[in-house]
């Protein structure tokens, strides 16, 4: 059961692709069939599998979540109590709750069985740079 | 580690149940205990486990997501940039991000440990018919 | 492949932590490396991994989902058809669809590889008390 932790340095809200790192991890494991589990060790960043063809998709996704969950400084969000870590913190927790903390991706022929347009992304929800840890676990 | 890919022909937005196909796959594997992973190979369709008793639940779910994320032709959605694949495309990506790309379901006694009312659904987010591929992976 | 079912007695909408029960299950299994899958057997309660430091985060999360998906008795929700199980029932299904039915958490050194602030929660979406079943499955 190979495991590794990869670190992604983020520079504000948005999607950061790590498909290549996962592909390499699977190939180097020498395992042909199995299940890759991806797990993010944070509560203000999350995981997404999304289209990796048009960069506008990434921009529109980030924009949607920003409109659905504005900063706690926004007049519509005055009900938020947890504000002491900044106006982007509680919205970050909410956006993480609305997306994924873990993904399970079947492996066949030593490759992730992704569809043609699917890429793996870390979804950073905080404004400032962070170092985000993602666990990759390759099991049966 | 048995694996299979099932294909679902969709006819527009909505929920398409495939619980029986998963039940059959598990039973035919001859595996009594393990983990079934379900993975959808698309970024404009997703997965849900929901109530399979009242068809109105399916209708209300589809309606909710349609109201939360209207077509990009809607006046409230003019901020969407990725429009070249049609007004239902970027909303489809957003709805997929809000739901699941993979599910993990424990197996016991050669059956999925679903609750009484739980059924497995493909959630189609595009208007036109599509052929959607779902990977079923039965591991340890 | 150890499996167990834990039951959580809920007392209305909100987040109920069960990190300790999962920690104990992993430790008692004697398995050092593997994958813990958590699965909730309901369609009106769901799973979340969230910050367990400040209780206000739990309150704000519950409040957000209550505002995003008001009861079907709310004037803005008159389009809901499935109302016969009470005004909190269809919103409960929607909130469950927006969060997780299953989680996959890698195990290393006989411990869940959670981040510092991550805790496991059942997210109850119904108003009345319920007994909720969660399956814990520890595999390879």
Q: What does the model show?
A:
3 copies of one chain form a homotrimer. Chain A is 25% helix and 39% strand. By secondary structure, the first copy, chain A, is of the alpha+beta class. The first copy, chain A, has one domain (27-139): YjbQ-like (Jelly Rolls, Sandwich). The longest helix of chain A has 14 residues, at 55-68. The mean pLDDT of chain A is 97. Chains B and C meet through strand 4, helix 2 and strand 5 of B and strand 3, helix 3, strand 5 and strand 8 of C. Chains A, B, C: It holds the Pfam family YjbQ. Chains A, B, C: Belongs to the UPF0047 family.
Write the layout of secondary structure elements.
3 copies of one chain form a homotrimer.
Chain A (H helix, E strand, L loop, with lengths): L2 E9 L2 E4 L1 H11 L4 E7 L4 E7 L3 H14 L20 H10 L3 E7 L2 E2 L5 E7 L4 E11 L1
Antiparallel strand pairs in A: 1-8, 2-7, 3-5, 3-8, 4-7, 5-6
Largest sheet of chain A: 5 strands, antiparallel
Helix content class of chain A: 25-40%
Number of E-state strands of chain A: 8
Q: Largest interface, with Cβ-Cβ < 8 Å?
A: A-B, 32 and 33 residues
Low-confidence stretches of chain A: none
Mind telling me the C-alpha Rg of chain A?
A: 16 Å
What is the domain tally of chain A? Answer: 1
Helix/strand order of chain A, N-terminal first: EEHEEHHEEEE
Query: What is the name of the CATH superfamily of chain A?
Result: YjbQ-like
State the separation between the terminal residues of chain A, measured CA to CA.
Answer: 8 Å
Q: How many helices of chain A?
A: 3
Organism (chains A, B, C): Sinorhizobium terangae
Protein name (chains A, B, C): YjbQ family protein
Family (chains A, B, C): Belongs to the UPF0047 family.
